[in-house]
Structures are given as C-alpha cells and as structure tokens.
C-alpha cells in the first residue's frame, strides 16, 4: 500500500518543494524527487509481479472518495513515465544554462505532470481518473506555453481548451454512468451497464472525451502545433506519456464495462478510427517540412495503432491486450529519444526544417545515431520493442479473424519507414553546397546527446528482453471480463 | 432525470466545445467555457445516486473547474498582453504566416 501511495505522493511533494525553493535549488531537488519516484515505481512493479494486483481505497468512515488500483497495466505505464520524466529532467538540467534551456517553472510543472500521470495510471474509479486528467491537462498546457510568443500561446491555449472540453465531457459521462450503475469503480461496471440508455450515453460521452484527449483523427487538430512547438525537454513528455494516459483510461473502460455493450460493429468502428489515424498521420508526416511537425504527425499515426488494438481486445485476444500496451511503451521511449535528438540537431544547425538537417550526423553523431536506433523501433523492425508490439498485434488480428488490421499495421509500418527514411537520409547525407554552415546556431553541450541515445537504446533492450514486461501485463488483465462480454 | 435532459446535455457540451474554437473574442470563449463547466457540474450533482457523495464530488470538481477557468483566463490575458489583440484559435498555429 505504501509504495502505491509513494509513486503519487513523491512527485507531488517534489513539485511543492520545487515551487517554493530558489531557482538554483530546483534542479537538484526535482532530480532527487524524480529518482526516488523511479525507485518507488520499480518497487511497485516488483510487488505486482510477486503479489499480484493491489488496491488502495482513499477516504475514511467507510466512504470511499477514490481508488488506486495497481495492476500490470498501471504499474508498467507508471515505470515508463518515471523513466521518461527522469530522462527529460536530466536533459533539461544539461540544457539549463543555455538559451534554449528550460525556465525555473519546468521543475514543479514536470513533477506535477508526473504525479497526475501516476494517479491516472492507477485510477480505479472514474472520479479519480477525472481529477487526474485535469492535473495532467493543466501541467501539460502550462509547459507548452512557457516559451512565450503568440504562436506558442495559441498552440497551448488550443491544447488546453481541447483538454477542458474533453474533461467536462468526461465528467458528465462519469456522472451519468454513476446514476445508472450506482458505482464509479471501473472494475464494478461489468454487468451493470446492460442496455440502460443513461449508462450507454455516459459511456459514449466518456469515450468521445478520451478520443479527443488521446487524440484520434479527426479529433487530433490540437496536437501537431502543441507537440511541434513545445520546447525539447517538454515534447518527450507530451508525445511519450500524456497522450498514452487517456488511452489507458479508454482501455480500462472498454475492457471493463464497455466489453458487454461493444457490438462487433462498434468495435470495428473504433478500430477504423485508428486505421484512419495511421494512414492520415503517416501521409501528413511524409509531407511535413518542419522536423518536429513530422514527429508530431508521426505521433498521430502511432496513436492510431493503439486504437486499432481495441477491436481485437474486445474480441478477447490476450495478445492484443499485451501488444497494445507494449506498443504504448515501445513507442514512448524511441519517440522521446527522437524529439530530444532532433531538437539538439536543429539547434546545432540553426534551423528546424527537414532539409536543414542535411549533414547533421557529422555535427552530432550521437544524436543522429539516437534517431537511427529510435527509427528502427518506431518502424517495428526486429529486435526492438516496436517489433514485439506489432508482432503481438498482427498475430492477434489473425487469430481473431480480423486480418484487415494486420494489413493496416503493415501499411502503417511502411509509411513510418518512408517518412523516417526521409529524415535519416538528410541526417546522414553529406552537407550540400547550399548548406549554410555559418547560419546562426545555438550552442548545446555534447554530453546531452547521451540522454537521447540512452532512451533509444532502451527501446532496443525492450525488444531483446520483453518477457518480464509481457508477464507483468498479464497481472490483473480483465481478459475474463472481455471473454464474457 | 429524463432521457431528453441527457440528450440536451450532450448537445450542449458538443455545441459549447465547437463554439469554443470558433469564437474570436476571449470573453466569449471564457463565457462559453464557464457555461459548459457549470452545466457539467450541475449534471454531476443531480445525477449522483447518493446525495452526500454527490455533494463531495461536486465540491471537488467545482474547485477543479474553477482553477481550470482561472488558468484559461490567465493564458488568454498573457496572449493579449503579448500581442495586443485576442488570440484566434480557429486556425492551426503551425500554418500561421
């Protein structure tokens, strides 16, 4: 129980301390809090692997006001967020004395974001999930806005309003489900929704809200600008973690109460939204001129792959459950690495367009190498984590007789290879005659590249040693509920 | 609550959400947002099966929503101070000239 609370309270306490301390003390205090949170996350994963899923009821006098549920899904996502946030924290520390470095507000905000994410990954009831979605929305939008300027503020405000609309819609949906089922605990929903109109409307509203937060095409309008314009230490948190938090709630909701009402047509419709995102996001990434814009559209496409797992999960495929969550993790690590690395390459070469990266590998070989390794995982080639995830999803699509999702996943991988090959071709090409090496660039420490490389290498390690994670994802998985539905 | 009220609430939320990105003045956006938040909050308060729990949840959610509105107002104010005019949110900032 203590360790379940620690993973939420530790970053919260760190955020409070970082907010009141003098700016020079913020990085060491925040990094200590991030490191301690990572230790707590490792202990929680160990406890879940050894003892099974755990629940912590919040509130006194028999009245529950919140429920934290540490199962395989929650603890795996929690470990991921602790790793990526710590890596982003180290990255931000190394950037701190440079012109593009983070402001002092980065530290309390990143810790608040982490506390919200951890609360969300563990949320066992709808109202805890709602409150944590709000915490994540405020911290995320504030971090996007910190760079200032009208364009960035517009991107942050659009992002924040989209999150707010989604949150209010989710709150109303949760209220309606509560009315109809007498419970807000997600694990108690199976068997209670049935054909009750109020509960179904509530479920529909929560689903739309979460699809806006993930986001899934055509609700993705806010993502490219917010993710592409955010500072380099912030984008990895947004693209790697924040978008996955809504997916986790969506998965819990549909694998729980939603499974009994999900008709085959509805399940296929959800999958179709994911398929459109894979193709549309991939095509836009192919056309993108700015590097981080390319990566942002790539995120739209990769998120589609998560949603494609839903119809197979609802058909009772254990492999789709594992493959979907594995993909959420295997995407976060290389995506965070790419966003850090391209930020460094762009700063070094004094421009943020794909063409401007020509010859970047000669300037920053480690950063370019990180992009290369990360690209292998994002495409889904062996022996990376991305390959393991796609393998499980393709096998699940065939075993459930839904072969069209396998074709979509392969098409998505080809599109990913095409737009990342364009990026890599520029990075590893010799600098052309038109390349202006005297263009103004921002000096950054070379050691910082190692952070991006470490994240990219971790995606590789995940592919080489996937067994422990696949075992963890079985703990508390609601596969019996899905099979009954 | 009647089913008609549920559908009205759903239409209210979707309409408010769309309007939020179409209004060109920050005052209108914040008013729309406040109306959406109030509607959502009232629906939650009315729909809870247990009055005492509903009151606790409504208080917590109300405080959260009030905080969120304050953040939205602060962001809008910052943007106006930055450029002298209200933000336009109906176009992707990446496509700005």
Shape type of chain B: flat
Query: How many helices of chain A does DSSP assign?
Result: 19
Query: Low-confidence stretches of chain A at least 5 residues in length (pLDDT < 50)?
Result: none
Number of strands of chain B: 0
Overall structural class of chain A, as computed from helix and strand content, comes to mainly alpha
- The residue fraction in helices of chain A comes out at over 70%
Indicate the low-confidence ranges of chain B by residue numbers. none
The rounded Rg of chain B comes to 16 Å
What does this structure look like?
The complex is a heterodimer of chains A (485) and B (97). Chain A is mostly helical and 485 residues long. In chain A, 72% of the residues lie in helices and 2% in strands. Chain A has 19 helices and 2 strands. The longest helix of chain A has 32 residues, at 150-181. Chain B is mostly helical. Chain B has one domain. In chain B, 77% of the residues lie in helices and 0% in strands. The longest helix of chain B is centred in the C-terminal third of the chain and has 33 residues, at 51-83. Chain B contains 3 helices and no strands. In chain B, α1 runs antiparallel to α2 and α2 runs antiparallel to α3 (51-83). The termini of chain B are far apart. The interface between A and B is large, with 48 and 49 residues.
Can you tag this structure with a few keywords?
heterodimer, A: mainly alpha, two-stranded antiparallel ribbon, 19 helices, globular, B: 97 residues, mainly alpha, 3 helices, 77% helix, 0% strand, flat
What is this structure's SSE topology?
The complex is a heterodimer of chains A (485) and B (97).
Chain A: H1 2-20, H2 26-51, E1 54-58, E2 66-70, H3 72-95, H4 106-122, H5 126-145, H6 150-181, H7 197-213, H8 223-229, H9 235-255, H10 264-287, H11 291-314, H12 318-349, H13 360-363, H14 365-379, H15 385-399, H16 403-428, H17 449-464, H18 467-472, H19 479-484
Antiparallel strand pairs in A: 1-2
Chain B: H1 3-22, H2 26-47, H3 51-83
Helix pairs in contact in B: 1-2, 2-3
């Amino acid at each position: 129980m203590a360790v379940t609370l620690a993973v939420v309270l530790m970053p919260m306490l760190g955020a409070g301390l970082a907010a009141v301390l003098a700016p020079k003390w913020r990085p060491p205090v925040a990094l200590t809090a991030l490191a301690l949170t990572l230790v707590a996350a490792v202990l929680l994963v160990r406890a879940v692997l050894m003892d099974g899923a755990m629940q912590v009821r919040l509130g006194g006098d028999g009245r529950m006001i919140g429920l934290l549920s540490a199962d395989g899904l929650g603890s795996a996502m929690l470990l991921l967020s602790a790793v990526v946030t710590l890596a982003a924290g180290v990255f931000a520390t190394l950037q701190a004395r440079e012109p593009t470095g983070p402001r002092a507000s980065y530290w309390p905000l990143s810790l608040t974001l982490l506390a919200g994410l951890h609360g969300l990954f563990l949320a066992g009831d709808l109202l805890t999930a709602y409150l944590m979605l709000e915490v994540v929305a405020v911290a995320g939008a504030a971090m996007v806005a910190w760079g200032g300027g009208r364009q960035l503020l517009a991107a942050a405000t659009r992002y924040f309003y989209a999150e707010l609309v989604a949150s209010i819609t989710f709150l109303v949906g949760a209220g309606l489900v509560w009315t109809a089922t007498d419970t807000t605990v997600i694990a108690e929903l199976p068997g209670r929704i049935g054909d009750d109109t109020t509960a179904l409307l509530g479920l529909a509203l929560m689903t739309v809200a979460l699809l806006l937060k993930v986001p899934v095409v055509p609700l993705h309008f806010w993502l490219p600008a917010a993710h592409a314009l955010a500072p380099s230490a912030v984008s990895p948190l947004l693209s790697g973690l924040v978008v996955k938090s809504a997916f986790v709630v969506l998965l819990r909701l549909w694998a729980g109460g939603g499974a009994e009402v999900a008709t085959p047509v509805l399940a296929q419709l959800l999958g179709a939204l994911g398929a459109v995102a894979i193709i549309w996001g991939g095509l836009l990434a192919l056309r993108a001129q700015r590097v981080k814009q390319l990566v942002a559209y790539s995120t739209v496409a990769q998120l589609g792959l998560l949603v494609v797992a839903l119809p197979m999960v609802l058909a009772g495929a254990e492999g789709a459950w594992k493959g979907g969550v594995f993909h959420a993790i295997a995407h976060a690590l290389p995506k965070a690495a790419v966003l850090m690395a391209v930020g460094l390459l762009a700063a070094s070469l004094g421009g943020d367009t794909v063409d401007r990266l020509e010859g970047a590998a000669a300037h920053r070989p480690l950063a370019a190498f990180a992009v290369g390794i990360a690209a292998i995982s994002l495409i889904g080639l062996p022996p990376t984590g991305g390959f393991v995830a796609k393998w499980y999803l393709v096998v699940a699509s065939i075993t459930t007789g839904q072969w069209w999702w396998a074709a979509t996943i392969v098409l998505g991988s080809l599109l990913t290879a095409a737009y990342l090959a364009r990026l890599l071709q520029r990075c590893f090409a010799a600098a052309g005659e038109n390349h202006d090496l005297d263009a103004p660039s921002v000096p950054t420490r070379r050691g910082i590249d190692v952070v991006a490389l470490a994240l990219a290498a971790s995606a590789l390690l995940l592919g080489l040693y996937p067994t422990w994670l696949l075992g963890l994802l079985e703990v508390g998985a609601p596969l019996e509920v899905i099979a009954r539905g | 609550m009647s089913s008609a009220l549920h559908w009205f609430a759903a239409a209210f939320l979707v309409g408010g959400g769309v309007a939020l990105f179409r209004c060109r003045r920050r005052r209108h956006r914040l008013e729309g947002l406040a109306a959406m938040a109030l509607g959502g909050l009232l629906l939650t308060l009315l729909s809870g099966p247990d009055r005492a729990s509903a009151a606790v949840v409504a208080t917590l959610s109300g405080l959260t929503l009030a905080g969120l509105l304050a953040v939205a107002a602060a962001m809008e104010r910052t943007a106006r101070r930055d450029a002298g005019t209200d933000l336009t949110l109906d176009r992707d900032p990446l496509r700005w000239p």
